[in-house]
Design brief:
Helix content: over 70%
Keywords: Membrane, Transmembrane, Transmembrane helix
Structural class: mainly alpha
Strand content: under 5%
Largest sheet: none
Organism: Thalassovita mediterranea
Number of helices: 11
Pfam families: EamA (PF00892)
Membrane topology: Multi-pass membrane protein
Oligomer: single chain
Number of strands: 0
Radius of gyration: 18 Å
Order of helices and strands: HHHHHHHHHHH
Protein name: Carboxylate/amino acid/amine transporter
Length: 281
């Protein structure tokens, strides 16, 4: 039960992060690179402060190559996500992102020889089908190729970042160091490509997204990943778009119709099936 609650809190943080990002860029008028950079810097400051407040022995440092890949995958996700949402609507973007996360993490599970029982494959397929039912764009909806490619790249980045966090001996420290190493790159990108002018509302949204739903949320995610496994973690993340849409309904008054309610049940049924423990032979 504790693992379920921690996973649920993490998924809520991910959904809130998506809502904050869209609000900052679309409603508050923030430029995408600037928003992503401030989000990254805020997460680095928050996690760095947590490290300074802690006491105890330092765990073994991650190898430089592994750290480099973790930082690169984090940057790929953050900037691909923000840039894609300039052109993609929320539904289409979420579908592309989490479909690619699903594919990446399942591929990682197979490559690492993780046992993936049949119910988990069926649960993933059922959840992904329900997600597609909710978010698949109609014939009139445009899917800009560049924005779609950027969101797909963000999904691959987040999938790899999640896979690399499974073996972290100290999740908070690993997440903090990834953010701290990535922050200078983000600030350089902001200086070269971003707009310096941001409204107070956009700054607040970016700081909340970075410090709370990204920094603390990702540290929590790293802590639950070893107990979930790659395939079950991939299935669990398919609930994020559903939570985000429900949050949008509660905050913006955009209430779902009957089709959404049915598709939500399909997704949650798939998650429940995929989360079932494997039976011993």
């Amino acid at each position: 039960m504790r693992l379920f609650l921690l996973t649920f809190v993490t998924m809520v943080a991910f959904a809130a992060n998506s809502l904050l990002n869209r609000a900052g860029i679309v409603l508050a008028g923030a430029e995408s690179v600037a928003f992503a950079s401030l989000r990254l810097a805020s997460g680095a400051v928050m996690l760095g402060a947590l490290l300074l407040l802690r006491r105890g022995a330092e765990p073994t440092a991650a190898p430089p190559l592994k750290r480099g890949f973790a930082v690169l995958s984090l940057l790929t996700y953050l900037y691909g996500f923000s840039l894609a949402y300039q052109a993609l609507d929320a539904g289409a973007g979420a579908l592309v992102l989490f479909a690619m996360v699903q594919i990446t993490m399942f591929a990682g599970a197979v490559m690492m020889a993780e046992a993936v029982p049949l119910p988990r494959w069926l649960g993933a397929a059922l959840a992904l089908a329900g997600l597609a039912w909710i978010l698949w764009p109609g014939a009139e909806a445009a899917m800009p190729p560049l924005a779609s490619a950027l969101m797909a790249l963000a999904g691959v980045g987040w999938g790899i970042y999640s896979l690399m966090g499974r073996g972290a001996s100290d999740p908070t420290r690993e997440t903090a160091l990834n953010f701290i190493w990535a922050a200078p790159v983000g600030l350089a990108a902001w200086a070269l490509f971003g707009a310096w002018e941001m409204s107070a509302r956009a700054i607040l949204l970016a700081v909340l997204s970075g410090a709370v739903t990204s920094g603390l949320g990702y540290a929590l995610w790293y802590s639950v990943l070893p107990r979930l496994g790659a395939s079950r973690a991939a299935v669990a993340q398919l609930t994020v778009p559903v939570i985000a849409i429900i949050g949008g309904a509660l905050l913006l008054g955009e209430w779902p119709d009957l089709q959404f309610a049915i598709a939500t049940l399909v997704i949650l049924s798939g998650v429940a099936l995929g989360a079932m423990p494997a039976r011993d032979k």
